[in-house]
Each structure stands twice: as C-alpha cells, then as structure tokens.
C-alpha cells in the first residue's frame, strides 16, 4: 500500500507564512479529507494477519493465510520488538547490521513492510497480533478509551480501572486455537507480563516462559521451538520503545538499544532448529516531536478544543474525543476547524466507514470509539499537560497512520 509522505508541520491553519517571509491570516483552511488517510492493510498485510497466516500453515482449523507472501514452516517464531518501525530500522544500518541485512526478506522476500493497524499503539497492536483480529473486533481500539458500561476512561495498556478481561475481549487467541489443534504454543517474555490482563486477552494460550534478560529469552525461544514438531512461539523486547519515548529515536540511548536488539535477533537466528521460520516485526514505529507550541498543542489550555468535550481519550497522535450529550456535531466542527489541516478528523461513523479500525466493528466496541477521532498527519502532538503529564513529556510518540508509525518490518530467517 502506498503511503503519502507527511508534509512539514505548520501553524494549525490559523496563521501561515507567505513565500516572502511575511505573514498572512489563513481564514478558510481546508480540512484533510477523511478518506485521504492511508488505512492499514487489514486482511492482507497487517499485524492482525500474521499469526493466522502462520497457524493456517500449521493446519489450525479456521485460520486464513492473509499474508499470502509467506511460506509455511513447521516451527514458527515471532519476535516482536516494541517500537521498531520500518523507517527507523532502514535509517540505521550501522546500529543494526544484522537486521538491515534481512530487509530484503521482509514480507516473504518482497522487501516490503506490513502495517500495524489503527491506532499504532502497543495495547491495540498486541491484541491484533494475539487474536488475529483488527481493533474493531478485538475491542482495544486505543491507548485509553471510554468504557460504555461505566462512562470512565479505561487505560488498556495498564488495565486501569480493572474490568473483567474476558468481558472486554471475549475472543480466543491464536495461541489457544493452535494449542487445541495440537500445535505447541508458547510465549517467552518478561516475568512481569505473566499474568497481566493484557496478556490474558491478547497473548495467552500454551506455555508462558518468564525470562528477565533478552539473551535468556532468545535461548528459551529457541528451546521452545525445538521441543515440538509443530510450534508457534512468541517473544518480545520492550526497551527500544522505552528509549524512544524517553530520549527520542534520534538519541544515542535509542541507537544503543537498537544495537543490542540486533545482537539478540542474531543470537536467536543462529539457534533455530531445523524446519523453522523466525519472523521479526514490531507493534508500531515512532517519531520525535519538538517541544514547542507549533508542534505540541495543549488541549488543557485550549478553550476551543475543550468546549463540549466530556472525556479526552487515546494519545497525542491518535485521539478519541467523547462529547457531552448534544454537543457531538459542534465538537466535530470545532476540531476540524482548529486541527483539520494537520489531523485527519472524523466522526465515529466516518472513521468506521473509512475502515480505520478494520472491516467490521463489534457492537460492544462501537461506543468505545470516540464521538470524534483525530489522527495526526503532520509532526504534531495534541498533549494534555494537566491530565496526562507523563505522556505529554515524551520525546518519541506514535499512534497515527503516517508511514513512520504504521509501517513495521516482517523480516524472515529460515533454517
């Protein structure tokens, strides 16, 4: 899928410099058309299609090989590197020589990426990976969304406030279905994630192996592959994402983490048992957003954006906006007028119709999506400095549908 490059950021459509360097008021900005957003490749090349494709190759009933470029293998391992987008990897061959040597293998040897899904954020992406479903079906359509049963915002990464996991996400995971079909399923990750609600709804099924160090995870993943004739194994590394959020994807710390995970991938690749396929992917990419008023718009200090808004959900580049009763139309109009040149701003139904959350929306998910949905096109952030102080201070950010956030690798090593 072709993605148009994001244009340079500008001043919200309210005040624009002329070509001569003087200033003029832009009194009639044109909002971005909703259908101009580059929708993820649901059904043929998204994270939600990866495990069903591998499971179909293993003979698991009901699974469909959506990513047709992949060749079946008896033993399959998915290594998900949190925060390592396609564009960031390609830009750092010196830090990641082994990973970059595999770029041509991506997506079954086509040398192309796949897409994360919208929003491009960890909770949503991990649920898509584990369930094999797009966000509109699995029901984790953002970092924070409104719980229709309580009216409160729910953080789906931290699972706060707590709600029954099986009620929030009732579908079985691909790992559970694989295990039922006689395939050995395993997840190798930090012990911290062994019993979290997000793990239960997205990644449970089979054997969980807790390992603190990345090296131990690689060794354990290889052992899990070797322990069965048919296997589906998942492993995970989070520190690339953490370095990007704290220091940015242009920082020495981030580059150091990329170098470390490059060595981890090589370590695992060198231990693959026969008839194995290793797939290296990510849950999203990331961009650095400058700390100035042109690039960071503060919802908590903007009376226009706050008018008629009951709850602000999502995150800085992928917002769910919940209006007070009767104000939905006014909020949509205002957000388009204020942000519409830099964000794709849609009503709930427009975003659903455009396919942002996938080809179908379950009834239980419909009201979790904002009355207004805003996805950043430019290098801008809609922060909330008072209600989200930690998130508002992050250097690296993600969530929207730009190539830097959406495109993720699907590198392959076979034995």
Supply the number of helical segments. 18
Q: Which overall shape is indicated by the principal axes computed on the Cα atoms? A: globular
The level of helicity is: 25-40%
Distance between the termini: 30 Å
Beta-strand fraction estimate: 15-25%
Task: Evaluate the radius of gyration.
Answer: 21 Å
**Average pLDDT metric:** 93
Number of strands: 20
Biggest sheet strand line-up: 8-7-9-3-10-20
Largest sheet, in brief, is: 6 strands, mixed
Structural class: alpha/beta
Which stretches of 5+ consecutive residues score pLDDT under 50?
A: 1-26
Plain-language structure description:
Helix 10 (214-226) runs parallel beside helix 12 (252-269) and helix 11 runs antiparallel to helix 12 (252-269). Helix content is 31%, strand content 20%. It is of the alpha/beta class and 415 residues long. The two termini are 30 Å apart. The longest helix has 18 residues, at 252-269. The protein is globular and about 60 Å long. Mean pLDDT is 93; it is low at 1-26. It is built from 18 helices and 20 strands. The strands form seven sheets. A six-stranded mixed β-sheet has the order 8-7-9-3-10-20, with helices on both faces.
SSE layout:
Blueprint: E1 15-17, E2 23-25, H1 50-57, E3 75-81, H2 86-90, H3 97-101, H4 106-109, E4 114-115, H5 122-131, H6 135-138, E5 144-146, E6 153-155, H7 165-168, H8 174-180, E7 184-189, H9 197-202, E8 207-210, H10 214-226, E9 231-237, H11 239-247, H12 252-269, E10 276-281, E11 287-288, E12 296-298, H13 303-306, E13 309-315, E14 318-323, H14 328-339, E15 343-347, H15 348-353, H16 363-366, E16 372-376, E17 381-383, H17 389-392, E18 396-397, H18 403-406, E19 407-408, E20 411-414
Parallel strand pairs: 3-9, 3-10, 7-8, 7-9, 12-17
Antiparallel strand pairs: 1-2, 4-19, 5-6, 10-20, 11-18, 13-14, 14-16, 15-16
């Amino acid at each position: 899928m072709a993605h148009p490059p994001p244009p340079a950021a500008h001043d919200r459509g309210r005040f624009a410099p002329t070509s001569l360097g003087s200033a003029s008021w832009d009194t009639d900005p044109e909002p971005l058309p909703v259908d101009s957003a580059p929708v993820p490749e649901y059904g043929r090349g998204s994270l939600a299609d990866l495990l069903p494709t591998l499971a179909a190759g293993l003979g698991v009933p009901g699974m469909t090989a959506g990513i047709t470029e992949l060749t079946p293998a008896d033993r399959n391992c998915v290594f998900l590197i949190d925060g390592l987008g396609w564009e960031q990897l390609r830009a750092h061959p010196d830090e990641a020589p082994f990973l970059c040597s595999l770029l041509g293998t991506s997506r079954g040897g086509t040398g192309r990426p796949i897409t994360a899904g919208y929003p491009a954020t960890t909770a949503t992406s991990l649920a898509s990976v584990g369930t094999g479903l797009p966000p509109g079906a699995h029901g984790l359509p953002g970092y924070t969304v409104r719980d229709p049963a309580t009216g409160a915002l729910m953080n789906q990464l931290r699972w706060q406030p707590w709600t029954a996991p099986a009620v929030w996400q009732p579908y079985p995971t691909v790992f559970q279905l694989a295990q039922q079909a006689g395939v050995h399923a395993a997840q190798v990750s930090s012990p911290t994630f062994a019993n979290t609600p997000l793990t239960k709804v997205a990644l449970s099924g089979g054997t969980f192996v807790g390992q603190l160090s990345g090296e131990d995870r690689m060794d354990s993943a290889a052992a899990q592959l070797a322990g069965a004739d048919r296997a589906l194994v998942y492993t995970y590394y989070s520190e690339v994402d953490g370095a990007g959020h704290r220091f940015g994807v242009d920082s020495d710390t981030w580059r150091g983490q990329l170098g470390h995970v490059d060595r981890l991938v090589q370590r695992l690749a060198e231990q693959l048992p026969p008839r194995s396929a290793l797939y290296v992917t990510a849950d999203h990419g990331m961009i650095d957003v400058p700390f100035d008023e042109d690039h960071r718009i503060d919802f908590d200090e903007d009376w226009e954006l706050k008018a008629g808004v009951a709850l602000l959900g999502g995150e800085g580049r992928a917002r769910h906006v919940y209006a007070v009763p009767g104000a939905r139309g006014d909020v949509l109009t205002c957000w388009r007028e204020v942000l519409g040149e830099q964000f794709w701003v849609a009503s709930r139904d427009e975003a659903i119709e455009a396919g942002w959350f996938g080809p179908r929306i379950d009834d239980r998910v419909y009201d979790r999506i904002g009355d207004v949905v805003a996805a950043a096109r430019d290098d801008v952030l809609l922060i909330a400095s008072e209600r989200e102080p930690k998130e508002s201070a992050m250097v690296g950010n993600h969530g929207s549908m730009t190539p830097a956030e959406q495109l993720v690798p699907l590198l392959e090593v076979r034995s």
